[in-house]
Structures are given as structure tokens and as C-alpha cells.
Target: guanylate cyclase
Amino acid sequence: MLTNPPIGILEYFYIQMTEWIQNYARSLKERTEDLKRERRLAEDLLHQMLPKSVAKQLRRHKHVQAESYEQVTIFFSDIVGFTTIAASCTPLQVVEMLNNLYVCFDTRIESYDVYKVETIGDAYMVVSGLPERNGEKHADEIAKMSLDLVAAVRQVAIPHMPKERLQLRSGIHTGPCVAGVVGYKMPRYCLFGDTVNTASRMESTSLPQKIHISSATYTALMIDDAYEIELRGEIEVKGKGKMKTYWLLGNK
Model:
């Protein structure tokens, strides 16, 4: 009766080595996929913190030069009575409320040619015209976006205050500014210049559910004459003196 010959020692080691190589290859492939996944997550996070064009330069270890922009339009908003609302909430409820609000806003602004600069507490800052210049579209993009956000905020529920609705106070200004990356371990894309300050003043002197715009923004929007705009008149603005300002009411 014939029997299979015993496996030689070299053949045995060959089989063992083959299995080890195959297992190692599978493990290496899994680790490579994990590394790619982690890299994608890191890139997504970086793109949320910085404009894509800026993030790309940083990934290549390039120094990002500050850049001057002749004309951009900047939007600021905050929640009316936020301090009072927050005083009646637990810290967790405040976080939940702001998260609901900013998820709504972040989703909405994706439809426009704008860049969210930052959120600090209940303050929301958005710009159009940088880092990618868009000609004379910046004022129009911010105007459309601001009307959308003012309408959207009324739909954001306060979980622990179901009968209440949030109200937005917002302001817009158009002008030159400088933009650049500040910081090393936690880089931030920041805007500098009087245009930033004036846009902030437009917001702080605005009213609930109103969009307060400067004369410069009014002039930029009147190029296409596509909006209903009402003269507010001259108001005293901190650090600026008297300024002629307007209310952006809606589309024509």
C-alpha cells in the first residue's frame, strides 16, 4: 500500500514562511488602510480649520505669506440676549444649543461662495472674497447668505426652552483687509484691518433679526440693484464717529 512521502524539512519551512509572508502582507495592507484613513481624517480637520488652498501649502511645509485683499465683504452675527439665555441653562445645554445653531449655519453657508473665519461663543464670522478672489461677487454672496441665516435661525429650537426662538443680530461691511495664518501648533487663518472692526461695529449696533450694512456694502450691492434696502440714517459708531448706514431687507 502506497503512502504519501513525509514532508521534507525544507518544504515545511517553505510552507511556514509562505503563510507568514501572506499574514504579514494582510497586516501591512490593513495598517496602510488605517494610515490612509487617519490621514484623510487629519486633512478633513485641517480643511475645517483653514481654507483648502492654505491647508495645502501647510501640508507641503510651505510658509504661508500674509496677503492683502482690495475688496472683501465681512459678516458678523451674534444671538440676541445670549447672556440671559445662557444664565438660565446648564453648560451642557448651552453647548447643545450652540451646536444646533452652528450645524444649521454651517450647512447653509455651503451654498454660497464664502468662508467661515471663526465662531467664538455665540459670535459667527464669515467672509467672501478671500482666500479666493471672486471679483465683485463678495457683497452679493454675503447678502444672500445673511438673509438665509436670519430666516434659518428662527427654525433652530432651544431644547430646554421649546417655546422660545433664537434671534440673530448681524452686520456687514465691505472693504480691504489682510489675511494670514497665525500660530504654529494650532494655526489659525485670521483677518486684520479696519474692515474687520467696522463689520463688527455694524453687528453690535444692529437690532434683532435685522441685517445692518455700511455705506460701502450698500454701494457694492447697488451695482446689480437686486435687494430691498432701507436707509437707517446716521448713527454714532464707537471709534468711527457718525456713519450713514442701511438695513438689508430682502431680495427684490
Remarks:
- Residues 31 and 37 are 10 Å apart (CA to CA).
- The beta strands are 67-79, 115-120, 123-128, 168-182, 188-192, 210-214, 227-237, 241-251.
- The two ends are 99 Å apart (CA to CA).
- DSSP finds seven helices and eight strands in the chain.
